[in-house]
Amino acid sequence: MSKPDLGTAYDREDEGEVILKDKPSPRPKDAATLILVRRDAAKPRVLMGKRSGRHDFMPDKYVFPGGRVDPQDGRAVCYTDLDPVQKARLQYQSRRLPKAFALTAIRETFEETGLLIGREAEMPAKAPPGWQPLYDMDIAPCLQHLQFIGRAITPPYRPKRFDARFFMAEAEKVLIDDRPPLDGAELHDLQWVSLKDALDLDLPNVTRFMLGEIEERLAKGEDPGPPFLRWTRSGHSADRI
Predict the structure, then answer these.
(1) Of the candidates 179, 62, 71, 200, which has an alpha carbon nearest to the alpha carbon of residue 117?
(2) What is the mean pLDDT of the chain?
(3) pLDDT computed for residue 10 by the predictor
(4) Which residues, 6+ apart, have CB-to-CB distance to 50 below 8 Å?
(5) What is the pLDDT of residues 139-171, one digit of tens each?
(6) Alpha-carbon span 19 to 58, nearest angstrom
């Protein structure tokens, strides 16, 4: 797989959405995504699912689990915290607690796939919004093995915009058990797919870019820092945090 250039992840405008023309650009909303990697076969595999055709943002595209950050996500009780390096990178140009992004990725993965990223622990009776099912099961989210590997802000000509943080984690280290992912209202056709086979799916450009980032990290065993894709007044900007 050839890794896409940093500057090409948002070149196309054919993600299945309406393009704004001569209208104010909406402010990006914080979001987080979790890329689970399985290394128990000949080739690494990642978990992907297909978005519903009813969505007005990237309908029918194959993506990783994730979604918008809830203001209360940062209040969820954790079993372990983020690595200090990940924390520092997540604080770059952000006022939100670093762990809020990781917790959002874990919550959204559970809601969209049924998979549990955490450990058994005695949890409080009352949970922040969206966390009650996990609290009721006495599951505390674990953050220590989540790697922050990319950030991308949706271009200004989109009707919906997100400032998304991408996390990667090895499934064998973070999942509480071996239960299979379950299709739901947000994602269906959930499957563990090799990086090469994933490229044959209908993908958003930024997802395709992140697959290249994952392949390079797994092949080299190095951490070059998360790429940061965004638009500025002077045009497209792509660098690393």
Answers:
(1) 179
(2) 89
(3) 53
(4) 60, 61, 62, 63, 187, 188, 189, 202
(5) 999 999 999 999 999 988 778 899 999 999 999
(6) 12
CATH assignment, 6-220 = 3.90.79.10
Q: Are 2 and 215 in contact (CB under 8 A)?
A: no
Which regions of the chain are under pLDDT 50?
Answer: 6, 11-20
Structure tokens, 37: 């990697």
- Enter the tokens of residue 159: 């009707």
Q: Which residues is 68 bridged to in the sheet?
A: 31
SS (H, E, C) the chain: CCCCCHHHCCCCCCCCCCCCCCCCCCCCEEEEEEEEEECCCCCCEEEEEEECCCCCCCCCCEECCEEECCCCHHHCCCCECCCHHHHHHHCCCCCCCHHHHHHHHHHHHHHHHCCCEEEECCCCCCCCCCCHHHHHCCEEEECCCCEEEEEEECCCCCCCCEEEEEEEEEHHHHECCCCCCCCCCCEEEEEEEEHHHHCCCCCCHHHHHHHHHHHHHHHHCCCCCCEEEEEECCEEEEEEC
Contact of 105 with 63, CB cutoff 8 Å? no
Q: What is the pLDDT of residue 133?
A: 97
HEC string of 94-105 equals CCCCHHHHHHHH
- Nearest Cα neighbor of 75 from 10, 132, 138 is 132
- Give the chain's length: 241
Amino acid (one-letter) located at 93? Q
